[in-house]
Design goal:
Blueprint lengths: L10 H7 L2 E5 L25 E4 L5 E7 L5 E7 L10 E9 L7 E10 L8 E2 L4 E6 L7 E4 L2 E2 L9 E5 L5 H6 E3 L5 E4 L10 E10 L6 E11 L7 E7 L2 E3 L7 E8 L9 E5 L5 E5 L5 E6 L10 E10 L6 E11 L7 E2 L23 E2 L17
Parallel strand pairs: 8-15, 17-23
Antiparallel strand pairs: 1-6, 2-5, 3-4, 5-6, 7-10, 9-13, 11-14, 12-13, 14-15, 16-18, 18-21, 19-22, 20-21, 22-23, 24-25
The structure holds calcium ion (CA) (4 copies).
Membrane topology: Single-pass membrane protein
GO molecular function, one term: calcium ion binding
GO biological process, one term: homophilic cell adhesion via plasma membrane adhesion molecules
Length: about 375
C-alpha cells in the first residue's frame, strides 16, 4: 500500500512552485553542417531545420516565432511534475534538416526538479494501540511512533509533538520526544484513576509552511495489585446479650478493594476458635458478623474480634480490623415469687425488728436464684 499523502496543488501553484533548470550540455552534440557558395543571394534557403524532442510524456516542444530573434524552440511542461516520482529528467533535443536522409544534430537537456513541500508526514502505522502497566516509572517508553515525509531536505524532516487539543491531565502524564517519537511517562499512571488514554500526536515537517499529520495513540492501562482491601464496619452493636441465638448479627462488615479483577477480589476470614463467624449477605462486598454458638458471659464477657481481608492478587495484599464486643448480662425477666400469695400466721407480742417470715423470688428461665428479698410490712 502506498504510504503517501500528497497535498493537492492547483496547476498555477504547481508551475510557480517548480523551478526547472535546463543544463545545456555543450560539446556533446553533433552539429548540422552545410556547405554553401559565397555567391548565393540574400534570402537563399540554406536548409529546413526542424526541432524534435525525444518521446516523453512530461515535456513538449513549441517553436515560437520571436520576429527579429528568430524562431525559438521553447520547452513546456506538459503535465504536473513530481520530484518525489522523478527528480531529474533527461531529454534529447534533435535538430534536423529537410534532406533525405536528414542531417541531424542533437543536444542533451537535463532538467532537475526542485522540491516544494507538497507531502505531509505519514505515520508508519494506521493506529497505535499499546498497553502500559500502572505505576510505570517516570521515563518509561510507552511506544515509539514514526512518520516519514517524502519531500527533500527540511521539507522532509519530521518533528513530533503532542496534540494541541489534548487535555491537561494527559499532558501532565505523557511526553513525546520531538526527534525520536518516543512517547514516555512523565506522571503517575494510576489504573484506579483512569484505565485508558487516547492521546493525540502530531508529526510536522520543517518546511517554511509546515505540513502536519495527526494520529491517535490508544493506551490501555493494566491494573496492578496496589491497593489493600479496606474493611469498614458499617453497623455495629458493641454489646450483645448473652442469650442471643446462634446466627445473631453483631455487625455488618463492608470490604472494598479499589483494584479490579482478582486484584480486587477479597476473601474475609476470622479466627476459628471464637463463637463468632462471618456470613455472606446478598451483596458480595458485605458480610455479617454473627454469633456461632450460645455465649456465656460467665465464661467470657468480652471479645476482641479481628477480621482479616486478603485479595487474590499476586502477590496478595491484606488488611485486618479488630472490633470489641461485650457480652451483656440479661435482666429482662421479672422475678417471680416462689409462692403467691404467701399466707402466714404471726403471734402477738413480737419484738419490733424480729424476723417473722421469709419469701423467695427467682427468674423462671434460670435455675439459679438471683435475688432473695426479705421484707415485711406491719400495720
Ligand atoms: Ca513535507
Ligand atoms: Ca515535494
Ligand atoms: Ca491497581
Ligand atoms: Ca488489591
Amino acid at each position: 500500500m502506498e504510504q503517501r499523502r500528497r497535498v493537492p496543488r492547483r496547476l498555477g501553484q504547481y508551475l510557480a512552485g517548480c523551478i526547472i533548470t535546463v543544463l545545456l550540455l555543450s560539446g556533446v552534440s553533433a552539429q548540422l553542417k552545410y556547405s554553401i557558395s559565397e555567391e548565393v543571394n540574400e534570402g537563399t534557403v540554406v536548409g529546413y531545420i526542424q526541432y524534435k524532442l525525444n518521446q516523453n510524456d512530461q515535456f513538449r516542444l513549441e517553436v515560437k516565432d520571436k520576429g527579429d530573434d528568430g524562431k525559438i524552440p521553447i520547452l513546456i511542461v506538459l503535465k504536473p511534475l513530481d520530484r518525489e516520482t522523478a527528480k531529474k529528467h533527461s531529454l534529447v533535443l534533435t535538430a534536423m534538416d529537410g534532406d533525405k536522409p536528414p542531417k541531424t544534430g542533437s543536444m542533451n537537456i537535463q532538467i532537475h526538479i526542485l522540491d516544494v513541500n507538497d507531502n505531509v508526514p505519514v505515520f508508519s502505522s494506521d493506529a497505535y494501540s499499546v498497553t502500559l502497566r500502572e505505576n510505570a516509572p517516570l521515563g518509561t517508553t510507552v511506544v515509539q511512533v514514526n512518520a516519514t515525509d517524502l519531500d527533500d531536505g527540511t521539507n522532509g524532516e519530521v518533528i513530533y509533538s503532542l496534540g494541541k487539543s489534548m487535555n491537561q491531565q494527559a499532558l501532565n502524564i505523557f511526553d513525546i520526544n520531538p526527534l525520536t517519537g518516543d512517547i514516555t511517562v512523565k506522571g503517575l499512571i494510576d489504573y484506579e484513576e483512569r484505565d485508558k488514554y487516547e492521546i493525540e500526536i502530531e508529526a510536522s515537517d520543517k518546511g517554511i509552511a509546515p505540513l502536519t499529520t495527526e494520529k491517535s495513540v490508544n493506551i490501555k492501562i493494566i491494573d496492578l495489585n496496589d491497593n489493600a482491601p479496606e474493611i469498614e464496619v458499617t453497623s455495629f452493636s458493641s454489646s450483645i446479650p448473652e442469650d442471643s441465638r446462634p446466627g445473631t448479627t453483631v455487625a455488618l462488615i463492608s470490604v472494598n478493594d479499589l483494584d479490579s479483577g482478582v486484584n480486587g477480589k477479597v476473601i474475609c476470614s476470622m479466627s476459628e476458635d471464637i463463637p463468632f463467624s462471618l456470613a455472606p449477605t446478598i451483596q458480595d462486598t458485605i458480610f455479617s458478623l454473627v454469633t456461632k454458638y450460645p455465649l456465656d458471659r460467665e465464661k467470657q464477657s468480652h471479645y476482641d474480634l479481628t477480621i482479616f481481608a486478603k485479595d487474590a492478587g499476586q502477590p496478595p495484599l491484606s488488611s485486618e480490623k479488630t472490633i470489641s464486643v461485650v457480652v451483656s448480662d440479661v435482666n429482662d425477666n421479672r422475678p417471680e415469687f416462689v409462692l403467691s400469695p404467701y399466707t402466714f400466721y404471726l403471734s402477738e407480742a413480737n419484738e419490733p425488728g424480729t424476723s417473722v417470715f421469709s419469701v423467695k423470688a427467682s427468674w423462671t428461665y434460670r435455675p439459679t436464684v438471683h435475688i432473695i428479698a426479705t421484707f415485711i410490712t406491719t400495720k
